[in-house]
Design goal:
The protein is mainly α. It has 2 helices and no strands.
């Protein structure tokens, strides 16, 4: 589950950077940051829906 949270946080950071770049007028970087934010959000959502992110070695259900 930790991976899902980290990817979600990174998605928010990338999308925040896209907003700042869009406000400052750097359209090229805004597009790149939107793409990165969308990819991180998608991978976090896909892993959350798949349910592989909730394995934890401390509770005996798998993990590393």
């Amino acid at each position: 589950m930790r991976k899902v949270f980290i990817r979600g946080i990174l998605a928010v950071i990338w999308l925040g950077a896209a907003a700042v770049s869009g406000i400052s007028g750097r359209v090229e970087l805004c597009g790149l940051y939107c793409l990165m934010g969308a990819l991180f959000a998608y991978t976090a959502y896909a892993e959350w829906k798949k349910g592989t992110g909730n394995t934890d070695s401390r509770n005996g259900k798998g993990g590393m």
